[in-house]
Known about the structure:
Blueprint: H1 9-16, E1 36-38, E2 41-44, E3 49-52, E4 55-58, H2 61-71, E5 77-79, H3 80-87, H4 95-108, H5 113-116, E6 117-120, E7 124-127, E8 131-133, H6 147-162, H7 167-181, H8 186-202, H9 210-223, H10 228-240, H11 244-257, H12 262-274, H13 278-291, H14 297-309, H15 311-331, H16 336-348, H17 352-360, H18 370-379, H19 383-395, H20 401-406, H21 417-427
Antiparallel strand pairs: 1-2, 1-8, 2-3, 3-4, 5-7, 6-7
Helix pairs in contact: 2-4, 6-7, 6-8, 7-8, 8-9, 8-10, 9-10, 10-11, 10-12, 11-12, 12-13, 12-14, 13-14, 14-15, 15-16, 16-17, 16-18, 17-18, 18-19, 19-21
Amino acid sequence: MPAVSVRTHARAVARDTAHPILQKPQPSNAPANTAFAVEGWRVDPRSRSLSRGQASCRLSPRALTLLTTLADRPGEAIDREALMDAIWPNTIVTDESLTQAVKELRRGFGSEGRRIVETIPRFGYRLNGQVLRDGMPASHRGSVFDIDAYHLCLDGHAALSRGGREAVSRFQSLTGQAVRRAPDFAFARATHAIATGCGWLYQRNTAVDADAAVIEAEVALKLRPDLALAHTAKAFALGAVGRQDEAVKALEAALHHDRNDADALFVAARLLFVLGRYRAAATLAERAAALNPTEFWPLHFGVRAAAVFDPARSRRNAVACLKRVEAQLGIEPDHPRARNLLGPLLATLGRDEEAVDAIAGQPDTETTLQVYDAIALAMVGETGRCVRALQGLADRGWRHGEWLAAEPAFASISESGSYRRALSDINHA
Length: 429
């Protein structure tokens, strides 16, 4: 039988005055009954529930107290004695009692349990992952601006816009740093929500869940209900989890606050494209591009959407977009996203051989940008290569099957068995 933990006065004094890692857990500023999230799992102390998507369980009081204690200091190791003091104050219990509480909590987190609740050998436990709290002090809302967090977000967005193999990971990493630096900065929260949604949609990353993006966006909205980007982030996150009607409402709120927000217009264009509302998607994409005359990514959605109902308009957009792409390549010849957009733009303009050459000249085909290669290959009749490109996306965890289903270039191969299998793999990634 495990030895009984004896809490002597000397042991308590030594622990409480030692290195911060050994200090007693301190309660957070959030109210005790306020819901919070851990790695996309929602924790509701009032109902003692732990849930994410369809998975849910009810925690015992001891497991809930263990979780809230660890969540007050995410990423820090807390020793076993301090945890037992928090869970069973003024009570002598065995080490086995804490071990059983840890086992229960890990079961609640499912297959991620051991990663999220990490054992620190011969010491204690640590909670790994981001903790998002809904309860922000009202005095903080809208009052925070952190220039270092702001530039981290801008750098992250620039990495995503540039594209490449590490683009999504870098976007997530930089915006995550921004949130850790300034947790009450709504702009950082909103940008990180979009980064988290991108991680879910476009790369295999078991540490990311789409629900986490929704929660992060909701925190941004609590901080700044008037911030258009926060509503945009919520729309993007809701779209990622298939809650399209709610996403449209969130976009309407974003544009109500700022009708000239290029990010909101672009996300709206993407969402409406997925919903098959091509005319509205084309118009909003063109407007987003007009607000940012050097950006070419939004205008490409104007090319794709207009192709469904007005090929001449699609070609006009393609000419304008190609000029912007070529200008970018004149500055940076290896710009990943600009190079990948060449294929579908040239194919739209009937320059099929140049489109094929552009695809062949890609320096790195194993990125999320391969979707543009697949579009161009479908347009020039290279069905086999198109399907192989789509299968490559599926193998890398690309989940945005709704985009592919809405893409007009794939209409000609929609009955192909290999295409259907690739799309199925993407939808179940």
